Amino acid sequence: AWIPRGGGDLVSFLWPTYAFAARSLRSGHIPLWNPHLYSGAPFAADNQSGLFYPINLIAFFLLPTSSYLTMEWLVFFHFWLAGTAMYVALRMEGVRRAAAVVGAIAYMFSDVFVTHVGNLNIVAVSAYLPLAFAFLRRGLSEANFQRSGNRKTDGPQSAVPRLDVSVGSLKIGSGWCAASGVVLGIAALAGHAQMTLVLVTAVGSYAVWEWLQAPRSGKWHIISLFLITVLVAFGISAISIIPAVELTRYTGRAQLDYAEASRWSLPPAGLVGLLSPLVFGRGPAGFWGPWERVETGYAGTLTLLLAGVALFGIAGNAVSQGSRQARVEAAEPPHHPTTQSSLPLFLALLFLFGLLAALGKYTPVHYLLYRFVPGFGQLRVPARFILLSDFALAYLAALGLNRLSSVTYSRTRLFALAGLLAVIGALTLPLAYLGVTRPAPDADTPAHRTALAWGLILYLGMLAVGTLVLDRWLRPQPLTPNRLRHIVAPLIVTALLALDLILAGANAEIEPNDPTRGFRHPLAAQFLLSQPQPTRIDVATGQWQPAAAAMLGLDDIGGISNPLALAHYDAYYWSVGHRGSPQYNFLGAQFVVADKGVPPADATFVPVYNEDPDVDIYLNTNAMPRVNLIYQTRIVPDSRAAFDLVHAPGFDPAREVVVENAPPLHASPPANQASLSYLEYSAEHLTIQVQTPAPAYLAFAEVWYPGWRATVDGRSTPIYRANYAFRAVRLEAGEHRVEMIFDPLTWKIGAGITMLTILRLAAWAWQIIRRAKS
To answer: What is the mean pLDDT of the chain?
Structure first.
């Protein structure tokens, strides 16, 4: 078996991406440009590549091959990392080990992780939230805010607290806040912009929460400490973020209207997924809801119960106040500036915010983020904000179980809470089902009713069993030692929660068929690789994975759907009309991979290879070279005019080139034949030897993007945008050596900032170690 169901992005997008990155790095080359897909595109600037993420780098360099098993193990590792991070965060909170394990299980198997088994980037970034939160919380607390209380003065007694901040504690706090920034920076390098912003939202919200509670004289300390977190996070990830910001300007994400930005919102009926993920089906095969499948936030039935314990005061005051053990194991570490009642309140508000933001277009919260918060206007899938709710639930659940294990509690309140949750589930699950099936009676099938029944049974059953276990083992018993009770109850709760979450998601993303088969066409690949280079292919079959070229080292005019594809090339590619049109032939797709016995276009495409058992290969006899000397120009002021001319009837890219804001050619096409030859044609360095009897434009079927620079005979020359999405260089008559190098300034700036940040942090750490030794 494989993961995820259908292969998903893990096999179609990330595996070939990582394989290309690993192959390049092992050869000693940092891949700034990817020549293999989309007729060439930025690679390092696409944050989805995860090129500089430390865990990926370890895998790229240490593992001899980039197998799909490696991808699966990276997913499993980040599940483990998410749980470990939550465990560490809760232990820093002072939570008992067993309760911390419960919180870890609830978080690592919550719905965002299960739903996105096939999107490693989402799982990887989300795994770091607990550590980023815990380190920031510790950093703000270590500033040692102490209220002096009321003191007698000559006048009326003052009720204004005084803030005492020691220099040493501020330095310790700065260290923890810097650690939070390191974690956030590493998370950003994992390669998912939206989830990175979700993490920043979580820690930023907590900083605001502390700022609101701090006395006036302490507010600047909160700001300065959080600023350390932000600056360190930016510095660590600048090598990825700065090029990514530049790239975003040239993609379709630069201008998303709200209708597009709010796609994949969590619908109100989907909120019942918090209670049971079974009602509308789980996984791509089982889901039947009338909306696009999104995360619903399920983190376990017992998680809801224990979170309620933390919120609604089920537990009373600590027993045996004179007992040293009770004080040591209490859930409230004395170093935190917020009280234990304050933290659950913050988490409850974070849960509510995550829920409202996940609802997307159904509430104004997401629109306000889209409208006023930088970055959110370029992102879709609001439902992913449910991660904040799952994090808050898992944290609260651990606090709740810890509280029950440490203090006395009210049985009446515990059973009342369980009863309330039971009533909510018994009402909302059927109502949500009816709300969906009443307008669409065809959806009311026996299988769907069975799913509803099982959802109710498992929800109510787990709620009942969990409540009874808590009451039986946490209530003092004459024949049961207290220590045994405090061990057995959390263990049983842990086992029940793990059983609930693992069983609910175990089969959701299991794929019985090998999803990597579309990459395995050795005969066809060998034929294509044996052709004189450079050449390009096109794919006209589902038997061949869209991004296989990146895996095999071929160059493809297409590729897997990419939200960060360059907008101009994307528009050109989808508007060529048909295979064999002049616009299509300009792309230089010399070979087309097609289904067996199914010609991809007209008779100008001739079969040249049919020995592969799955695909045939056709030669496009009218494909143009990737570099051409053109003597007729159409000069236009902008891209809109260029698009119209390139797609006008009669346009022939073999005879004329449309160039934006460039000097025209005044000479007539020469009678003498010109010549050009490739001296070097690699991913980021092109060298062409040209002989032209008249001024001309050297037009490349290579995608235009800032960062490319050109020289003619060693002298710098402009690169013009040609034929809407491509490059051209103007040449005078004569013999020339033309070079193009991809050398983006944003990459240099980002890499410099990251290196300086790492060096500064290393020096800081070295100073701390030396002082500790002395």
So the answer is: 90
